[in-house]
Design brief:
The chain is an alpha+beta fold. It has 2 helices and 5 strands, in the order ββββαβα.
């Protein structure tokens, strides 16, 4: 199964995350299929940047976002709240 999830980068106490498409069996910081954007949890202005067309493509292909990524995409208006 393909998932849209976060991949952690950055230094200790200063993380930022890439939003990636990866196989669900790959390690968290391991191999991924495509990078869709990034999320900086420390910044308050524009913390999420994504390639909206690619997110829509992967969602149409059946990729499932994790709970955290789904919340971020809802804030950006890319997916509907259920």
């Amino acid at each position: 199964m393909v998932k849209i999830r976060l991949q952690r980068y950055g230094a200790k106490n200063n993380p930022f995350y890439r939003i990636v498409v990866a196989d669900s069996e790959s390690p968290r910081d391991g191999r991924f299929i495509e990078q869709l954007g990034y999320y900086d949890s420390v910044k308050y202005s524009a913390p999420v940047t994504v390639k909206e067309d690619r997110v829509q493509y992967w969602l149409s292909q059946g990729a499932r976002p994790t709970q955290t990524v789904a919340g971020l995409l809802k804030k950006k208006g890319l997916i509907q709240a259920k």
